[in-house]
Amino acid sequence: MSAKPRNLDPGYVAQFDTVNSEEWSRILNQFSDANIYQTWSYEAVRQGENNVSHMILRAGDRIVAAAQARLASIPFLGLSAAYIRWAPLWQLRAQILEPANIQQALRALRNEYVCRRGQVLRIFPILYDDNPQPYAEILSREQYTRVPAEDPGRTLIMDIHQPLDEIRKKLDQKWRNCLNRSERNNLEVVEGTDDKLFADFISIYRSLLDRKKFPPPNDINEFRSIQRDLPPEHSMRVLICQSGGVSSAGIICATIGDMGLYLFGATNEEGLTNKSSYLLQWKAIQWMKDTGCHYYNLNGINPATNPGGYHFKAGLSGKNGRDVNYLGRYDSYASRRTAQLVRIADVMLPSIKRAIHKKGILKKKAI
Questions:
Q1: Averaging pLDDT over each range in 131-135, 166-170, 337-341, which range is the top one?
Q2: Are 334 and 114 in contact, with CB atoms under 8 Å apart?
Q3: How far apart are CA 247 and CA 191, in angstroms?
Q4: 259-267 and 120-124 beta bridge pairing
Q5: How far apart are CA 206 and CA 214, in angstroms?
Q6: Cα torsion angle, 16, 18, 21, 22, sign
Q7: pLDDT per residue as tens digits for the range 176-228
Q8: C-alpha dihedral sign at 339, 341, 342, 343
Q9: Ranges of H-type helices in 172-194
Q10: Considering only the top CATH level, what class is 155-324?
């Protein structure tokens, strides 16, 4: 039995797949919660433009919400899904927040992808557990269920709307001491958006992964391709620290709405000595403030699995930051049977992927 759509409240109208990339970029600029994961380039590069879908929600003649979805099949289940990361966007710039807008956006998304297209809808809204608004209740009322097998994720959010000297005073004392040392080391920071800087960063990033024997958490070359496709106003910022022309550390950040996002960071042996990563973060904050950002998302912490990264980010956020959990991922299904199948897949697929990956490694070794 298929799910039935629910009417939107009077005055609201949802439109799907009616805009092009240039129009979508202009729409993003209207929202303070816009982010790189909702840029046309992000999903078009990763999934192909034919597998990306866009919703805009209007209230009267105003666009009040928007969302980009990645369309894909769910392995072994014969089902298709719409994945939405850090959306729907609904926080209009310089406007009072209207929770009714996100509620109607959630309803419109379910109506289209679940009820009309028969897909599984999985969203990861950019909402936190410390918000006084009852967003979890809104999601439940609109027939979304929290994904039970997944950690929602935890991060640090810095308040950077204050003057720079106030931000600096509130850094952790030890972190600020390291920043002072880095500023005395005659380091040069080169920053921009061009491809050569991205290539320079990748070199440092690869050496970091080799040194720590970490698997790459994201495909850095994929982000390089995304950078080439992004409109200039939405380009990621690459910052490289050099001493005597030799690179020692680098970071990549993004800003579109009023929140900057830390995407990648890497330091080599020289950078560990000259504390260049501290200087880079301070330069990034200065750049974010110049672009009009009020907040800086340090993009994930895990004191148990990465204590070094946690202490660095906690020291940076100092008294400017708040430690939050995301609300997590939510699904909406057409039936209970579909929900059961997807939950089984959530448990089984990671093990299957690890087995395939391990088998691939063994084959390579045999060759």
A1: 166-170
A2: yes
A3: 12
A4: unpaired
A5: 10
A6: negative
A7: 999 999 999 999 999 999 999 999 999 898 877 767 666 665 689 999 999 99
A8: positive
A9: 173-183
A10: alpha beta
First CA to last CA distance, the chain: 51
Question: How does strand 79-85 pair with strand 120-124?
Answer: parallel
249 strand-pairing partners = 241, 267
Take residue 287 and report the two structure tokens written for it.
């750049």
Question: Rounded distance, CA 151 to CA 339, Å?
Answer: 18
Q: What's the Cα-to-Cα distance from 197 to each of 192, 249, 278, rounded to whole Å? A: 7, 12, 19
Q: Which residues pair with 14 in a beta bridge?
A: 57
Q: How is residue 146 written in tokens?
A: 């929290």
- Phi then psi dihedrals of residue 78, to 5 deg: 70, 25
Give domain 12-146's CATH architecture: 3-Layer(aba) Sandwich (3.40)
The answer to whether 12-146 and 155-324 have equal CATH topology is yes
Please list, in sequence order, all residues whose beta carbon lies within 8 angstroms of the beta carbon of residue 56, skipping any fewer than 6 positions away: 14, 15, 18, 19, 27, 63, 65, 66
Domain ranges of the chain: 12-146, 155-324
3-class DSSP assignment, residue 106: helix
Q: Residue 179 half-sphere exposure, CB side, CA atoms within 13 Å?
A: 20
Strand partners, 251: 239, 265
Is 89 in a helix, a strand, or coil? strand
Q: pLDDT tens digit string along 279-289?
A: 999 999 999 99
Query: CA 107 to CA 93: how far, in whole Å?
Result: 22
Neighbours of 125 (CB within 10 A): 27
Whether the per-residue pLDDT at 293 is higher than 80: the answer is yes
- Detail the DSSP E strand segments found in the chain: 12-16, 52-59, 62-74, 79-85, 120-124, 145-146, 154-159, 188-192, 237-243, 246-255, 259-267, 295-297, 321-325, 330-332
Nearest to 251 by CA among 233, 268, 238: 238
- Which is it for strands 145-146 and 120-124: parallel, antiparallel or unpaired? unpaired
Q: Quick one: tokens of 74?
A: 């769910």
User: Which residues lie across from 297 on neighbouring strands?
Assistant: 157, 261
Query: 367: buried, middle or exposed (CB in 10 Å: 19+, 13-18, 0-12)?
Result: exposed
For residue 60, the Cα-to-chain-centroid distance in whole angstroms is 30
